[in-house]
Amino acid sequence: MSEYIDESTYPEPLLTEAPPGQPVPQDDPPDPTYNLVARVLHWLMAVLIVAMLFLGAALIGTIGNYGVLLSIHRTVGLTILVLALIRIANRLLRRAPAPPAALPRLERMAATASELTLYVLFILQPLLGWALVSASGIPVRILNGLQLPAIAPENARLYAGLHLAHTWLAYLLLALFTAHMCAVLWHATALRDGLLRRMLWPRRPR
């Protein structure tokens, strides 16, 4: 006795190949660059940090324009603090592109440690500067005359300690920033592994 099989009850087989004349659909490759917000913040903060380093050096060797330079220094420092917080939030929300596959594991670990240290300094240095001005008893004013609240009590010994910490962390920031620049130039000119392209604007296809 033969049984009748209703083929309509069985699902249609999935197509594993594209119809003739049409390309096989593929997943989009991962974006090799950082997102736009990350790229803009990266280069903007790089310019501001270089400016801060020059301002810090100028503050040591100048007398006549000390007040103006100090006001600019505070304003740029506060701007870096705000941008760093935005950058960290963006980094937590948007995943960074994968590093080049040829990058050794030890170098990846060193780059991650350096990046985390830089983020800490981007936040800690402006806060230390804000605190040391507060400890000096001088009103914390930025370039447009806005007075910020004091975040540390007025105390001479506290001021001296904060000033020393702020100075040494500035040297550390300079060293890390220089090492970062040297590493980027090495990858861009000698290795040419595409590491720098992750932070550049992607080229439009012709």
TrEMBL record:
GO terms for biological process: respiratory electron transport chain. Residues 34-200 form the Cytochrome b561 bacterial/Ni-hydrogenase domain. It is found in: Cell membrane. It is a multi-pass membrane protein. The chain crosses the membrane at residues 40-60, 66-86, 116-138, 168-189. Gene3D superfamilies: Transmembrane di-heme cytochromes, Chain C. The keyword Electron transport applies. It comes from the Bacteria. Residues 1-29 are annotated as: Disordered. Keywords: Cell membrane, Electron transport, Heme, Iron, Membrane, Metal-binding, Transmembrane, Transmembrane helix, Transport. GO terms for cellular component: plasma membrane. Pfam families: Ni_hydr_CYTB. GO terms for molecular function: electron transfer activity; heme binding; metal ion binding. Belongs to the cytochrome b561 family. This is Cytochrome b. It comes from Nocardia huaxiensis.
